[in-house]
Every structure is written in structure tokens, then in C-alpha cells.
Design brief:
Elements: E1 5-6, H1 16-22, H2 32-49, E2 55-59, H3 62-73, E3 79-84, H4 87-98, E4 103-107, H5 116-126, E5 129-135, E6 137-138, E7 143-144, H6 147-156, E8 160-164, H7 176-179, E9 183-187, E10 198-203, H8 205-212, H9 223-230, H10 241-257, H11 259-279, E11 293-297, H12 304-315, E12 317-318, E13 320-321, E14 330-334, H13 341-357, H14 366-375
Parallel strand pairs: 1-12, 3-4, 3-5, 5-8, 8-9
Antiparallel strand pairs: 2-10, 6-7, 9-10, 11-14, 13-14
């Protein structure tokens, strides 16, 4: 009878209403009904992305959408700068390596984001960079990079700006056209409030120029095929049409609530959670913390995996551990999508109770009290 509350930064919690929207009888995907659903999703995604360009919905993960964009925009006769300070940015580096695409690495320690002046210095140092890849919200470390500033630096230096926005788009400010971003990628299981299964990518005219100038070494992820099908609001291959129905539902929820209100809600949950962490004598891991997810350092004397396991087993709070060399030294709590203040204060309380069970010393109720004061504006 236990209720599980997903506080992992993907997949995130899905509302019963969204599940019911996807539970309607299955229809065929080559129909006017599906094309109308996809058309509505595109228009709503333009609102979420803050763009006039066409977002494309790929049946696959965010990684599928990111790989499609990279193989189209990162050409074999041009260098790409890949900025990495976490496991997901390292994945984009690994794709460049796998496809033998020329690139330069800009590596920083986990927990740090990338700043515009740092990227500008790298572009000046190398001189022949034609594309820059970075993660706006590095999910594995809960660190944020300056997407707006980096995008301007890329424009000023004639380089494409490819942004992994998988845990930023729909959660924190992301303004594709205003900021001059060339590629923005996200996935269904984050701020879109759905199960995993859809990757989404939007591309600028500059990005399309690069894609059209060569043949990308891919078939299923060939964005030219998606563009051709999108002329009729269709897909080149079999889509997950039930998920598209769900996407239409959740995007309408976001539009009704207002994207600026979504950003403000995410920021408030993050601020309150960080206040709770500090009140408990714990430390936020990221030196450049993002609002979509908070990473908390496991304190001395506490077994991190046991802490997470007991939160789920005893109180139904499922949060994530770290990745790579920080696998067991942090826990991560989501603030995206279908999660609210009451859910989150419950997660803070579960953190407190399970910490106390391991002998960690703190003032009982300190975390939940600090959380509540921020939420109430005190």
C-alpha cells in the first residue's frame, strides 16, 4: 500500500490525469488525428522553447535527439568544442569520439558550470571551432551553465551553439530565439512530466545550414527525414503515438499555468530545498547550483546508498544517487514538473528521519522548518 514519490531527476512523477490521457484506445499513427496531435505539440513546444522554429519529436530518449543534432551539426571537416563537467556532457564527448568527429575538450571539475568568458577564451585559443556543445543543467551534478552568455559568445565567433536542455527546458528559463541558441534538446521524462520515450529537438536556420551541407552518418536519427515528414505533421518512422497524446496533454497544462510561472515554481522549490539542506548542516554539492535538481553531499558517518534505500523503503521517497566517481557521495532531489511544496517538504522530512536513524545529529525539524519559511516568504 506504499505510495512511491519519484524525486529522481528523470523519470519524474507523472500525474494520474496524464496517464489516463495516454490510456485511451490505441489508434493508428498514419491518421489525421495523429497529425493534428503532433501539430498541436509542435505549436505548444514552440511556446515552451520560446522559439519560432519547428521542434521535432523523436521516438527515443533525449540521447537519441542529442545524437541526431550532433551528427547533423558537427561535421567531419570542422572542429567542435565539447564542454564537460559531468556524466551527461561526457556522453556527448563520447559520441564525438565514437563517430571520429574532430573536437576539442574543455573539462572542469564536477559541480561547476561553464561561463561565457571561459568559452570565449577557448574559442580564441583554438580559432577554428565551428560548434560548441554544453549542458545547460548538468543532471549528474546539479550544476548550471550560462546558456544565454555562451550562446552570444558562439554567435560572435561564428560557431553553432548546441545545448543539452534535457533538465532545463520547461523547468528553468530557456529562451531559444532571444538568446540565439542553435540547437535545444530535451526529453519527455523530465519537465514534460511524462514517462521516458520521446526526445525533442529544435534547430535554428544556422543549424539547418550545417545539416544540409553534408550527409550525417545516421539513418533513424537523420533530421532531414524528420523535416520532410513534418511538412505534413507526420513522422518518418513509427512514432509512440500514445506518448504524443500525453505530450499534448502536459504541454497544454504548462501553457495554461504559464511558462514563467513554471520557472518561478521550480526556483522556489530549489531555494527552499537548499535552505533546508543548510539548516540540517548538510552541503549542496554544486558550486553553481541549478534550480531543476538539487545535489546534496552525504555527510561523514552516513552510508549514502543505505540512506536512499531507507527513504524509499520506509517513506516512499525515491531520490537518486550520484554518477561516476560521486556515485555514493551525493543524493539528488528533483524540482521539475509534477512535484509541489507538499511533496517536497515530505521528502525533506524523510531525509531528516532517515538521517537520524543513522546517528546524524541535527535539530529535529530544522530542515522542514527552513523549507517552510522560504515557501511562506518568511
Amino acid at each position: 500500500m506504499q505510495k512511491i514519490r519519484l524525486f529522481t531527476p528523470g523519470p519524474t512523477m507523472v500525474s494520474p490525469e496524464s496517464m489516463l490521457a495516454m490510456a485511451q484506445p490505441l489508434d493508428h499513427h498514419r491518421t489525421a488525428g495523429f497529425r493534428d496531435d503532433l501539430k498541436q505539440c509542435v505549436e505548444l513546444l514552440q511556446y515552451v522553447y520560446q522559439t519560432g522554429t519547428t521542434p521535432y519529436v523523436i521516438t527515443g530518449s533525449g540521447t537519441a535527439a542529442m545524437e541526431a543534432a550532433m551528427l547533423g551539426c558537427c561535421k567531419p571537416d570542422a572542429k567542435t568544442l565539447v564542454c564537460h563537467a559531468g556524466k551527461f556532457a561526457e556522453r556527448w564527448r563520447d559520441i564525438l569520439v565514437r563517430f571520429k568527429l574532430p573536437h576539442v575538450e574543455f573539462e572542469k571539475e564536477y559541480g561547476l558550470g561553464f561561463k561565457a568568458d571561459e568559452v570565449a577564451a577557448k574559442l580564441k585559443e583554438h580559432g577554428d571551432i565551428k560548434a560548441v556543445i554544453f549542458v545547460h543543467s548538468e543532471t549528474s551534478t546539479a550544476a548550471v551553465s550560462d546558456a544565454q552568455g555562451i550562446a552570444k559568445v558562439c554567435r560572435d565567433n561564428g560557431a553553432l551553439c548546441l545545448v543539452d536542455g534535457i533538465t532545463s527546458i520547461g523547468a528553468i528559463p530557456f529562451k531559444m530565439d532571444e538568446w540565439g541558441i542553435d540547437v535545444g534538446v530535451t526529453g519527455s521524462q523530465k519537465a514534460m512530466m511524462l514517462p521516458p520515450g520521446l526526445g525533442i529537438v529544435a534547430l535554428s536556420d544556422r543549424a539547418w545550414e550545417a545539416i544540409d551541407s553534408h550527409q550525417a552518418p545516421t539513418y533513424y536519427n537523420d533530421l532531414k527525414a524528420y523535416r520532410k515528414s513534418m511538412e505534413k505533421f507526420d513522422t518518418p518512422y513509427t512514432p509512440n503515438n500514445q506518448m504524443v497524446t500525453g505530450l499534448k496533454f502536459t504541454l497544454n497544462q504548462i501553457k495554461t499555468f504559464g511558462i514563467e510561472n513554471v520557472w518561478a515554481k521550480t526556483a522556489k522549490l530549489a531555494k527552499a530545498t537548499r535552505a533546508a539542506v543548510e539548516a540540517l548542516g548538510l552541503k549542496v554539492f554544486a558550486k553553481d547550483p541549478v534550480d531543476s535538481v538539487t545535489a546534496v553531499e552525504v555527510p561523514a558517518g552516513v552510508d549514502g546508498p543505505k540512506w536512499r534505500k531507507e527513504m524509499r523503503a520506509m517513506y516512499g521517497i525515491h531520490c537518486a544517487g550520484g554518477q561516476g566517481h560521486i556515485k555514493d557521495t551525493i543524493i539528488r532531489l528533483n524540482h521539475m514538473g509534477y512535484v509541489d511544496e507538499v511533496d517536497t517538504v515530505g521528502a525533506i522530512a524523510a531525509m531528516e528521519w532517515t538521517l537520524a536513524a543513522q546517528g546524524y545529529k541535527f535539530e529535529p525539524g530544522a530542515g522542514s522548518g527552513a523549507f517552510g519559511r522560504v515557501i511562506q516568504g518568511a
